[in-house]
Specification:
ATP binds at residues 53-60. The protein is α/β, with parallel strands linked by helices. It has helices at 2-32, 59-70, 99-102, 104-112, 124-134, 202-212, 249-258, 277-289, 298-301, 306-312, 328-340, and strands spanning 45-50, 76-80, 91-92, 118-120, 140-144, 156-162, 190-194, 220-230, 239-244, 262-268, 293-297, 316-325.
Length: 341
């Protein structure tokens, strides 16, 4: 019944899609005709990581994987818009920053890779120029969530889409979750289908590759997320509360359950939403009162005030995600080859 209701809602929303489609289409036409200009940064290579939908595809884990795979050969920096931050303009991210000043995902990346320069700036070209000026030895900048930022023409574009809702099976907002046109897939160099089940069949993979080939000539790689929970003992059906500020909280909850935990309470917040200290205390006191562990991802952990984390750390488990990509050597070799052109 819920599927039927969803389909009816999508049909009713289709008339609202047309004006959005026309605006996005016109913008791409203006860039294609060079009425609006794209610039390829000089003396430095760039990789754009992004998607065609509203979040939840694994951009941050992909950025971190690229850092791991390329840092032995390149001096890398990361540049993000810093979505959700309260500040404006260019800013270097430091590990001790408040996430509200720099954005939760840039702060997460910086804390995981303290030796890698991370910056936020709405204007990607300005951000690239300032990073290069501050760090003359840089030769590669990874642009987080940058496929829609056509003012920058990157050396490599990596498109992420999910197994359950690939871009070619989705619709433009508000009838679906796409924020860009499906045809944009033809301009990317590599496509990664994330959240692929570990037991996914070869037949299903080939079917997805076949449909993708109608939109893009880019090679397809499949990626599985392996989840573990740090700072908690091995689960024996322990009772937990889950706190989520990610785009797809249902998948987080499912991952926690698959690890053997019994989810008794779910706190759902919007993607990137701020959680104030009073709310954190309410959540953690609830967990203490009902003898629950509190499960968060690294994205929520950077939002947790340090003093609260220290006070309640015996209750808190971190859901960590390992980004496992099939044919990883082939994947990174394609990217390296593009960077050398």
């Amino acid at each position: 019944m819920s599927a039927i209701i969803f389909s009816i809602k999508r049909i009713l929303l289709i008339p609202l899609v047309l004006p959005i489609y026309l605006v996005i289409k016109l913008r791409h036409i203006l860039f294609n005709l060079e009425i609006l200009l794209s610039e390829k940064p000089e003396e430095i290579r760039t990789i754009a990581v992004g998607n065609l939908s509203f979040g939840g595809t694994g951009k941050t884990p992909m950025v971190q994987l690229l850092i791991q795979l390329l840092s032995s050969e390149y001096q890398i920096a990361v540049l993000s818009r810093g979505y959700g931050r309260t500040t404006k303009g260019f800013r270097i991210v430091e590990p001790e920053d408040d996430y509200q000043d720099v954005g939760d995902e840039p702060l997460l990346i910086k804390q995981n890779f303290p030796d890698v320069p991370v910056a936020v700036c709405e204007d990607r070209l300005e951000g690239i120029r300032k990073l290069k000026g501050m760090y003359p030895d840089l030769n590669l900048i990874i642009l987080d969530d940058a496929l829609q930022h056509r003012k920058v023409h990157p050396d490599v574009s990596v498109l992420l889409t999910t197994w359950d809702k690939p871009y070619f099976s989705d619709c433009l907002f508000p009838a679906g979750t796409l924020r860009d046109l499906k045809e944009r897939a033809k301009n990317v160099d590599v496509t990664v289908i994330t959240k692929t089940p570990a037991d996914a069949s070869i037949q299903r993979k080939k079917a997805l590759q076949s449909i993708h080939s109608k939109y893009s000539g880019s090679p397809v790689f499949f990626c599985t997320f392996i989840n573990t929970i740090a700072a908690l003992p091995h689960p024996t059906h322990q009772k937990v509360a889950v706190v989520s500020t990610i785009a797809n909280p249902d998948q987080m909850v499912q991952s926690v359950r698959l690890l053997g935990f019994c989810v008794k309470k779910i706190y759902r917040f919007k993607d990137h939403q701020t959680i104030d200290p009073a709310k954190w205390i309410e959540i953690l006191e609830y967990c203490m009162r009902f003898n629950l562990f509190c499960i968060v991802t690294q994205k929520e952990k950077v939002k947790l005030p340090k003093e609260l984390y220290q006070a309640y750390r015996h209750l808190i488990g971190i859901l960590e995600i390992e980004f496992v990509i099939e044919n990883k050597t082939e994947f990174i070799n394609i990217i390296k080859k593009k960077l050398m052109l």
